[in-house]
Amino acid sequence: MTEQQQRPPAPISDVLRVHGFAALEPGPKLIVLGGVHGDETCGTEGIARTLAELDSGALTLLRGRLTMVPVANPLARRLMRREGERNLNRLFQPTRAGEQPADYESRITDLLCPLLDAHDVLLDLHSFQSAGEAFAMIGPRDNSGTLEPFSRAYEEGQLALHLGTPRVVEGWLDIYAAGLAQRAGGKPADDSAIAFGKGTNEYMRSRGGYGVTLECGQHQDPAAPEVAHRAIHAALRLLGMIGADPQAAPPPAPTLLRLVSVTDRDSEDDRFVREWATFDRVARGEPIGVRAGGRVLAAERDGFIVFPNSAALPGTEWFYFAVESERDLRQPAASGRP
Fold it and tell me: Can you give the pLDDT at residue 334?
């Protein structure tokens, strides 16, 4: 028996499976991630179906390179919880030269960052805790600012548009930075604090590419894996990496929402006035939650609840608030931030 045969199989927490396909015809380079959060399994299932189609010949890559990572955080998946040691979709950056990775997710990031560096486009497949419909999240409009400079907003918007979700949400990093300032009593957050809000898509944009996060539905929604599978096909078609679908109709324009605020949970006794679902519409003045001391939190304007989390820990995000955006994904986005 050889040394390799004697060696026991590596535990799942130490193995990152990466599947790569390269067509002979050059073209775009797309990477698809699933399982960035361990309890979000729809992306893994959507990738598995696509892998089976490619292996069987039912789906053919015509040009470019396709890389798929079914479980981007194996430890979190083995534990079937959101995180292993921390949130993989925060502080997504390689370990600095001469330093040691601080935790499990940092070691995984050191493997994933070079993969993203080698690609043009990222599709990151997720799901969410509360009830609600699938939606896509995109980054900033073209800008030369310091928070997240970007010049590929139109391409990113086109990808989000073609994924077929009824809603697309913009404005994540702006509101994350505003939330940090809010917790610090109005003092602007420094770069190290803002870096913790940067995930896979923000890293992809910083490397000259673009990326979309697709929230495929609630964690246990039986339709979520199909949403993920369709999205992979839609991205491949849009990029010309697989054949066009002659029966496909042009994608309908989704409702575009812009995040405008985040509210933290201050106490375990803070409570919602009812069980909210992502994208529940609220009117100005409508009660949303009640603080431990009895103060009612009401909507300051007409808008939508996003990512309500009744189990949020004190000092963390309780819910986000969004309003309708005037941006049209079918047209090149205007530069500058709204």
Answer: 52
How far, in whole angstroms, is CA 87 from its chain's centroid?
12
**Selection from 241, 269, 285 nearest residue 66 by Cα:** 241
Model confidence pLDDT, tens digit, residues 143-187:
999 999 999 999 999 999 999 899 999 999 988 888 888 777 777
Q: Are 85 and 120 in contact (CB under 8 A)?
A: no
Residue 161 DSSP symbol: H
d(CA 197, CA 304): 22
| Cα distances (Å, whole numbers) of residue 71 to 44, 46, 228, 288, 294 | 6, 11, 14, 36, 43
Q: How far apart are the first and last CA of the chain?
A: 65
CATH topology of domain 9-253: Aminopeptidase (3.40.630)
Mention every residue, 6+ apart, whose C-beta is less than 8 A from residue 291.
Answer: 266, 267, 270, 297
Predicted TM-score (pTM) of the model is: 0.89
Helix axes 42-56, 224-238, angle to 10 degrees: 50
Tens of pLDDT, residue by residue over 99-117, are 999 999 999 999 999 999 9
Domain ranges of the chain: 9-253, 261-324
Domain 261-324 has CATH 2.40.50.630: yes
